[in-house]
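Quick one, tokens below. Sequence please?
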């Protein structure tokens, strides 16, 4: 509609700075008070939208595009991961898809390393002990954890976040190995002292396996019972990417049986549900999908998402398109 202000639907509340950017170019709608929209509510509110700023909770597929109708020009997700988006279904309709890589790298790697420290040094277990008012006293064998110096970190997916995790691990004296779809540049391998290994070998030789690959059809349940059986009984698994990369039932069993030593998990197969067996185990550190959850990072993500949407609405190339 020539001259009409674009209709921009934001599916969850976003920081003011990002809203302000969107308001400069269109009429912005978002649920107030903030809440998750059901799929049918989502389809209802996106009708006739020119742009949708979405989150990883929204299922964005052909039905979504049909519900929005022909006005829709851009779906800008406030996330680096876009496994919730059927990119070909959108791009084949001429809808641009954008995400927010880069700005959450450090926050996510910090959280992954935090989970690693939490599980290897038994921080959650120690806190639960104190909060339960259980009597305790210092002694030399009390609540011993596992040190990181000289241990091997196996990174699955040496992208931006995997590399940031490796840099943190280097500062803790760890050796870096990695596996992935392809080998990293020589310069990156040199900087990180990282050795490329086939996935199976990475599993069997690492003291810590940290997952940084996206969720795709080929990484769904990449860590299954077989993969867990290849890991050392003294090894730890860290997952800050997407829950379904890990078969959660198999993981809970491996943790309960002592097939691996522990796990640190920020993401879950059926979020927001957490497998009930995991909740019973002491050798797992849990966080509710907090990887990018800092004020600075969420502001940067939302602002980048807004810039992406504004660019497409203005007929310009968005800063960070998803190449579908
Ligand atoms: C992402 O961006 O994909 C994270 O999971 C949420 O910040």
């Amino acid at each position: 509609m020539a001259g009409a202000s674009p209709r921009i639907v934001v599916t969850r509340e976003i920081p003011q700075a990002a809203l302000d950017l969107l308001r400069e170019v269109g009429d912005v709608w978002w649920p107030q008070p903030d809440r998750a929209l059901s799929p049918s509510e989502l389809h209802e509110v996106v009708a006739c939208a020119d742009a949708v700023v979405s989150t990883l909770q929204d299922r964005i597929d052909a039905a979504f595009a049909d519900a929005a109708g022909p006005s829709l020009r851009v779906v800008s997700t406030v996330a680096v991961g876009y496994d919730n988006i059927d990119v070909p279904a959108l791009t084949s309709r001429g809808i641009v898809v954008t995400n927010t890589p880069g700005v959450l790298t450090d926050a996510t790697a910090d959280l992954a390393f935090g989970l690693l420290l939490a599980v290897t040094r038994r921080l959650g277990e120690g806190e639960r002990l104190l909060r339960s008012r259980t009597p305790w006293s210092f002694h030399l064998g009390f609540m011993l954890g596992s040190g990181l110096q000289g241990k091997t970190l196996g990174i699955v997916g040496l992208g931006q976040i995997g590399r940031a995790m490796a840099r943190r691990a280097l500062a803790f004296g760890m050796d870096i190995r990695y596996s992935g779809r392809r080998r990293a540049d020589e310069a990156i391998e040199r900087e990180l002292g990282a050795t490329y290994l086939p996935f199976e070998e990475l599993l069997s030789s690492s003291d810590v396996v940290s997952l940084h690959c996206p969720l795709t059809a080929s990484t769904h349940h990449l860590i299954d019972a077989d993969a867990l059986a290849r890991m050392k009984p003294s090894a730890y698994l860290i997952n800050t990417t997407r829950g379904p990369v890990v078969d959660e039932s198999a993981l809970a069993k491996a943790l309960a049986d002592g097939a691996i030593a522990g796990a640190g998990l920020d993401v879950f197969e059926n979020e927001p549900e957490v497998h009930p067996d995991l909740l019973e185990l002491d050798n797992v550190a849990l966080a509710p999908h907090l990887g990018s959850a800092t004020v600075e990072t969420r502001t940067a993500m939302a602002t980048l998402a807004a810039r992406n949407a504004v660019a497409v609405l203005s007929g310009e190339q968005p800063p960070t398109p998803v190449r579908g």
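Residues 105-286 form a domain with the Rossmann fold fold (CATH 3.40.50.720). The mean pLDDT is 97.
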